[in-house]
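> @MW can you paste both from yesterday?
MW: sure, first one:
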Amino acid sequence: MSLAAIPLALPVACEPAPAVRVQAPAAVWEANTLAAEHDYMDLDTAVAVYRIVAADRGWDQPAIDRREAFVRGVMQRESAGCYNLRRGAVFADHTGAGCALKRQGRGTDSGYGQVLMSVHKTWLCPQEGLCSPEDVISTPYASMTAFLALIERAGSQGWCYTKKLRAGRLCRSWPG
């Protein structure tokens, strides 16, 4: 019997799992070294992290520039530019210096964009390796990764989900 006559049976169910996206170590290091510079409502540091992570994700400079106003606005509204927040967090003092927390929140809304992990972990975990709110808020790089991955997946929908929100200044800043 020739080898060509032997049926080849390959299991269909053994398709490889989607690989977690690999980050450039230099970009991770550069973004995470900015952790100590974060302060409540200091969006310049958070925008610097945005630019680093967006470039690492392959966004071209025009796309980064076009989306900056929207990203800045979401961070201002959702996290005050702090990567380490979960919904309900309480700052250590009234200034929010260093984004230091007195008490971490219990909500699943996490990070710069307050990404709702109870909804989005089903795809963020296999795609980005971010499987819990704690994973998202662990570093500036991880927090921005969750935020930008949601933008890549759903545009402005995560923050502009009602008619009233879509009519507001923040949602109108979405470049499309």
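MW: second:
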Amino acid sequence: MEQARRAARQSDLHAAVTSIRAAREVTPEKLDNRLHTSLWLLEGMLYRLQGAEERAQNAWKKARSIAATVTMRHPLHLIDSILLHSLTQGWNRETLGDVLTTFASRHLGKEDRPAVQITIHRTFLTDPAWISTFNAVLQSEEGRKFAQDYTLCLDPPRELVLRFYRMLFEHHFLSTAFPGHARAHHPCPPDRGPARHRNDHEPTWRDRAPLRLPPRLERCICRQHPFRSTYPYSPALIENLRWLLKQRQR
């Protein structure tokens, strides 16, 4: 798969697609569905770069169906799943609750997971604007550029994830505080109306009472969060790894 990314970064899309198809010919016992998901995600992006958007969407939908069968879902696979749902505009209350709850509680014990489910429900599922945001965030020019950078690994994973977080919250803020601005930059798909006109029977963000997690759970999340800002690594090691990453991307 790395050969396909390298060829795509060099604008050799034909060689990239050939490498993807060769990787997929590996026997199933040597290629689990997490890697299959990543392969179809990358292949879809190669089709988009060739101007074949319908083939890209079909590849991403195939990746989504494969991702749904994965039981051991590590963080990068979950990020792949989040992007696939946004690329295909496949988010709804069920998928948002399942994927986000799994992502947020992957390091927690069973006794702490119900609190995470409550938080996800009150934060995301009771506000239809969040579903609209997740479906629309990768449809703009900025979103399409981000999807390409992520799929071809043009930036370090941590920077890409933080960039995606920023795009999500920026879109949600604009869509709720300045609805006209958000619709102009991220139009709703044809089969969906603006978020504020859908699910009127559901409580909105204004109806939600503030929720605090149990102190033990908050400490657990802060201790285990993979993107916290402090690391026990030396600056020299980080600089060396950055140099190595740049060498691989040449």
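> thanks! Residues 157-177 form the longest helix (21 residues).
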